[in-house]
Amino acid sequence: QVYLGESGGGLVQAGGSLRLSCAASGRYLDSYGIAWFRQAPGEEREFLAAMKWLDLRTTYSDSMKGRVTIARDNVKNTVDLQMNSLKPEDTAVYYCAAKWGILSQRRSEYGYWGQGTQVTVSS
After folding, report:
1. I need a surface site. Which of 53, 75, 76, 102 has the fewest CB within 10 A?
2. Which 8-state DSSP code applies to residue 65?
3. What digits encode the pLDDT tens for the residues 1-57?
4. DSSP 104
């Protein structure tokens, strides 16, 4: 069982930056990968980035590469998503998720989800 909780969402102006945090806990966390997804109204949930908890391997979606960075904070025990050059179309609910084993960009492979945090980018 893995427990996840997102924080850091809010309202930001276009061109600004935001750092989201995903607090993760549970047994055998070293065997899990933590990912960030987002879902805009009426849209499919979209993969953004993922990181292996133990060895810090990462994978990014092609659409977000260069604007987001995923990183682990060992002090806070979180996996953070740094987002830069935000655009109004980045407005969505952002979720973190966990899966056992190798990283994946497929939403269906993630069995544990946080409650989500709203990010709104104003023009």
Report:
1. 75
2. B
3. 999 999 999 999 999 999 999 999 998 999 999 999 999 999 999 999 999 999 999
4. -
| 12-24 pLDDT tens trace | 999 999 999 999 9
DSSP-derived 3-state class of residue 11: strand
Task: For residue 58, give Cα distances in angstroms to 51, 52, 103, 106, 123.
Answer: 4, 7, 8, 14, 31
For residue range 71-113, what is the model confidence (pLDDT) as tens digits? 999 999 999 999 999 999 999 999 999 999 999 999 999 999 9
H-run or E-run covering 120: strand 117-122
Residue 59 CA to residue 65 CA, distance in Å, equals 9
The one-letter amino acid code at 74 reads N
- At residue 116, φ and ψ (nearest 5 deg) are 95, 155
Q: In Å, how far are 3, 50, 108, 123 from 69, measured between CA atoms?
A: 22, 10, 23, 23
CA–CA gap between residue 73 and residue 31 (Å, rounded): 17
Burial (CB count <10 Å: 0-12, 13-18, 19+), residue 112: middle
